[in-house]
């Protein structure tokens, strides 16, 4: 499981936690997150996320 | 060769304009001039870096050189622009003169500073950049603060026994969004936190009173001490004697200097670090000197153009008006009245996209959608879409953790959600009348 960082606002998507409030189940791989999904904090597109180690 | 597009400022506004422009136009030369290093980082991450255990170096998502290479821009880092001449379309900097075809002012905002009394008033710091944060992080986590002077005690100190002493105490002036985010981050990381604000609760300018009360309680639960209806009067150095155990059973006394903060309510708070988070003011220095129309920010029309052709502004530096300069002839003056600054991330993204299209040759007006702001206070997650300034109406709560701002016609003009209700932000946003 990996984490991905919104390079704009710092929001972190954690594959293990998913994003249930947006209909993305825990354990959802980044590749399987829909391209239409946007950062919940700042609204930028999925393309503006980068893998990050924390 | 035609002169380049010049962008002043390498914050989110400057770099995002570059990124969006390069999606449309790979060829026009771009020169980016910045007073700092030009490293790209997410500024909102400064106020939750401690809980995420990210160091200042780890906050840089892309180094300046890589940004410049990826986006094919010339970068002049650590360079200050001194003056702009709109008539000749040139600017003067600490690294010489440059001509521009279009100029973008992405100069951001500077912390508002209050004059304070006391011999340590200059120790009060704001955190508005990665450099500011690096200083703060060093002060917070370093072995000894800048003011610590050990006097006496010839034996090596047993630092284990000094854990209480080493829990540094941070005072924050201002209980707005940034003050609350830092308070939450510091308290959750184990630091002692005191917040001082002249108003009656946290984030009263953005939140309904009862939501503000929830936040006050949630942060108090983390140990945050609040002083409302109060301001900081003075900050002075004081010497304090700290008793510490050393190896064996002996005790030594060391004297160190800390900050004594005096509040208007008579309280005295001995603290290690004092932060000011009372707000930002658009940096209009260059624009004003160049004769551009400025108010609280550099006034721009719907295409992000300033009052001077070929000069644009966006981000925290800008004050966004509606309409276009001179259309109709008296529109500019009228539009300024409703113009507002929008110091958040989402407006910057929208503005950068529109400006990039304009710079690429297709004049484009920016359209700001409803932009809910997520407040990074994990003790009580909050999403708020505040009504436009001046909207008449009142906050109403239908269910726990959910508020709507209703105008006189019973239309929803804004909302606030706390705790688990923040999951419903998309549904709430649909109810708001644009």
From TrEMBL, chain A:
This is Rubredoxin. The lineage of its organism: Bacteria, Pseudomonadati, Pseudomonadota, Betaproteobacteria, Burkholderiales. Its cofactor is Fe(3+). Residues 1-52 form the Rubredoxin-like domain. Pathway: Hydrocarbon metabolism; alkane degradation. Belongs to the rubredoxin family. Keywords: Electron transport, Iron, Metal-binding, Transport. Signal peptide: none annotated. InterPro entries: Rubredoxin (IPR024922), Rubredoxin-like_dom (IPR024934), Rubredoxin_dom (IPR024935), Rubredoxin_ET (IPR050526), Rubredoxin_Fe_BS (IPR018527). Pfam families: Rubredoxin. Involved in the hydrocarbon hydroxylating system, which transfers electrons from NADH to rubredoxin reductase and then through rubredoxin to alkane 1 monooxygenase. Binds 1 Fe(3+) ion per subunit. One of its GO terms (biological process) is alkane catabolic process. GO terms for molecular function: electron transfer activity; iron ion binding. Fe cation binds at residues 6, 9, 39, 42. CDD domains: rubredoxin.
